[in-house]
C-alpha cells in the first residue's frame, strides 16, 4: 500500500499505509494530532508543547524517499500518557543532565532538589537528579507564543522553589527551519528573581535512516565525528562526574576526534564495557568541545559534531555556542517503545516496529555536566544566573546534507 505525503508543493510517494496525520501544510494551528508544523524547502518539522519537543523531522534520503529521522510519538496526547519518559526531543530544564546528590551550594546556602535517578533501597526516589527533577521542564506543557510557516516559539515560566530550585526562571525556545536544510534552535532563559543554576539542551534522538534500513535497525553503521572533543568528563559507576577531566587518546574507545568513526567500531574497542556506567555497554558520556578562543561558533571550521549514515546518505552536521557535548547510544532502549507511523519498514516483517537497543543516538549540546558542583572547572559564569547578570543563551544549528 502506498499513500501520498505532501512536503511543500511536491507530492511524495511514501511506501507506507495511511499516515496518522494530515499533510503538514501551514494553517497557523496544530494539526489533528496536536502537532505544530514548520517548513522550508526540503525540510519539515513538527513540535508539541509537551517539553517544547520536536516530534518529527522529515527530509529526503539519497533515493528521494522522505525519512523521519527523530524519535517521538504519533500525537501530542501520547506525550502525557507515555510512562517510560525517555525525554524524546524535549528541552530538559532547568538544569539538564545529572546533579550529584541532588545538592548544590550557592553563596554558602545548600539547596536540596528533588532526586529522580538511581534509586536505592535507602533512597527510593534516587540519589541524584536527572534533567531537572521528576517534574522537570520536559514533563510540562510549554506555551506556544508564536508560530509561522518556518518557525515556532515556546515559553515556560518555572516558579520559585519548583523541584527545589531557587527563584523563578522564564524561558523562550525558538525553532526554525531554512531552505539550506537547517534546523536551528535558540534557547534563552532569565533568572527573574534569584540566583539559580540554568543549563538546557535539546534532547533529540536520531536515527538517520528513519528506522527503515532493511539491513540493520541499529545505528552501529552510523559514523560520528567530534573534531574538538579530545577530552571527556570522568564519571563514577552511576555517571556522576568525579571532577576528573580525562583524555580520549587517539585510537581508544572515546576517540571520535581523530577521524570520523563508525559507532559500531567503538563497540569493538577496549573499555566499551562499563563506559556508560557500571554494567552498561555503550556511550552515555560528556565530551568537552575545545575550540581555541576567541572563535565564531558559526564558522565552517568550528563544527562540533557530525553524524552520517551511508544507507540513507543523510548527514547531520552540528554547530553550537556550547562547550560540551553528550552522546548517548540508546543503551537503555529494549524494544518496548513503538516506532511512529512515519518510521520503519511497513512492507517487511524483518524488524519489529519498535526501537531496539542501540537503535538511536542522542546528541546534546550543553555545558560541562554538573559544573555547579565543580567550581574548579570555572563554569559558574555559564551555569549560574541572576536578575542583574547575563541571560542564559544556547544556540544550535543542525545542518543536513545528502551524500550520494
Ligand atoms: C510554507 O513553506 C513551504 C516550504 O518553503 C512552502 O512550500 C509553502 O508554500 C509555505 N506555505 C505557506 C502557507 O506559506
Ligand atoms: C497516539 O500515539 C500513540 C503513540 O505514538 C499511539 O499508540 C496511539 O495509537 C495514537 N493515538 C491515536 C488516536 O492516533
Ligand atoms: C547529600 O544530600 C543530603 C540530603 O539532601 C545532605 O544531607 C547531605 O549533606 C548531602 N551530602 C553531600 C556530600 O553533599
Ligand atoms: C534495501 O534497501 C535498499 C535501499 O532502499 C534497496 O536498494 C535494496 O533493494 C533493499 N534490499 C532489500 C533486501 O530489500
Ligand atoms: C554500512 O556502511 C557501509 C559503508 O561504510 C555500507 O557500504 C553498508 O551498506 C552499510 N551497511 C548498512 C547495514 O547500513
Ligand atoms: C524495557 O524497558 C522498560 C522501561 O525501562 C521497562 O518498563 C520494561 O520492563 C523493559 N522490558 C524488558 C523486556 O526488559
Helix run count: 3
- Under the CATH scheme, which architecture would be assigned? Distorted Sandwich
Summarize the main sheet.
9 strands, antiparallel
Order of strands in the sheet with the most strands? Answer: 11-12-13-14-27-23-22-17-20
Counting copies of identical and different chains, the oligomeric state is single chain
Average per-residue pLDDT, rounded, comes to: 94
Number of strands: 27
What class would the helix/strand composition place it in?
A: mainly beta
Q: In CATH terms, what is the fold-level topology?
A: Beta-galactosidase, Chain A, domain 5
Distance between the termini: 27 Å
SSE succession: EEEEEEHEEEEEEEEEEEEEEHEEEEEHEE
Portion of residues in helices?
under 10%
Q: State Rg.
A: 20 Å
**CATH class membership:** Mainly Beta
Unique bound compounds? 2-acetamido-2-deoxy-beta-D-glucopyranose
Keywords: Carbohydrate metabolism, Isomerase, Membrane, Signal, Transmembrane, Transmembrane helix
Organism: Cladorrhinum samala
InterPro entries: Aldose_1/G6P_1-epimerase, Gal_mutarotase_sf_dom, Galactose_mutarotase-like, GH-type_carb-bd
Family: Belongs to the aldose epimerase family.
Amino acid at each position: 500500500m502506498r499513500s501520498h505525503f505532501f512536503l511543500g508543493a511536491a507530492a511524495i510517494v511514501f511506501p507506507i499505509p495511511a499516515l496518522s496525520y494530515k499533510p503538514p501544510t501551514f494553517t497557523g494551528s496544530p494539526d489533528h494530532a496536536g502537532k505544530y508544523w514548520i517548513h522550508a524547502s526540503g525540510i519539515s518539522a513538527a513540535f508539541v508543547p509537551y517539553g517544547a519537543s520536536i516530534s518529527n523531522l522529515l527530509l529526503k534520503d539519497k533515493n528521494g524517499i522522505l525519512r523521519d529521522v527523530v524519535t517521538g510519538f504519533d500525537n501530542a496526547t501520547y506525550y502525557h500518557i507515555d510512562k517510560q519518559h525517555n525525554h524524546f526531543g524535549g528541552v530538559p530544564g532547568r538544569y539538564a543532565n545529572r546533579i550529584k546528590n541532588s545538592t548544590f551550594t550557592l553563596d554558602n546556602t545548600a539547596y536540596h532538589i528533588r532526586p529522580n535517578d538511581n534509586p536505592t533501597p535507602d533512597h527510593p526516589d534516587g540519589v541524584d537528579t536527572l534533567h531537572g527533577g521528576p517534574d522537570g521542564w520536559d514533563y510540562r506543557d510549554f506555551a506556544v507564543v508564536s508560530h509561522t510557516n518556518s518557525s515556532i516559539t515556546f515559553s515556560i515560566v518555572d516558579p520559585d522553589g519548583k523541584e527545589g530550585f531557587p527563584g523563578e526562571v522564564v524561558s523562550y525556545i525558538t525553532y526554525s527551519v531554512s531552505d539550506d536544510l537547517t534546523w536551528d534552535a535558540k534557547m534563552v532563559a532569565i533568572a527573574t528573581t534569584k540566583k539559580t543554576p540554568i543549563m538546557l539542551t535539546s534532547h533529540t534522538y536520531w536515527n538517520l535512516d528513519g528506522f527503515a534500513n532493511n539491513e540493520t535497525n541499529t545505528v552501529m553503521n552510523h559514523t560520528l565525528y567530534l573534531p574538538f572533543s579530545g577530552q571527556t568528563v570522568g564519571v563514577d559507576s552511576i555517571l556522576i562526574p568525579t571532577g576528573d577531566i580525562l583524555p580520549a587518546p587517539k585510537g581508544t574507545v572515546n576517540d571520535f576526534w581523530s577521524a570520523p568513526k563508525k559507532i559500531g567500531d567503538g563497540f569493538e574497542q577496549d573499555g566499551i564495557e562499563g563506559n556508560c556506567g557500571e554494567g552498561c555497554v555503550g556511550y552515555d558520556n560528556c565530551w568537552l568541545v575545545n575550540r581555541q578562543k576567541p572563535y565564531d561558533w558559526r564558522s565552517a571550521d568550528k563544527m562540533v559534531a557530525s553524524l552520517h549514515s551511508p544507507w540513507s546518505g543523510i548527514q547531520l552536521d552540528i554547530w553550537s555556542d556550547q562547550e560540551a557535548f553528550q552522546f548517548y547510544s540508546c543503551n537503555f532502549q529494549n524494544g518496548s517503545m513503538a516506532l511512529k507511523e512515519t518510521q520503519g519498514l511497513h512492507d517487511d516483517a524483518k524488524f519489529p516496529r519498535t526501537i531496539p537497543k542501540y537503535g538511536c543516538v542522542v546528541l546534546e549540546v550543553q555545558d560541562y555536566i554538573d559544573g555547579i558542583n565543580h567550581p574548579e572547572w570555572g563554569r559558574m559564569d555559564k551555569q549560574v544566573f541572576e536578575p542583574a547578570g547575563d541571560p542564559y543563551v544556547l544556540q544550535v544549528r543542525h545542518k543536513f546534507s545528502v551524500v550520494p
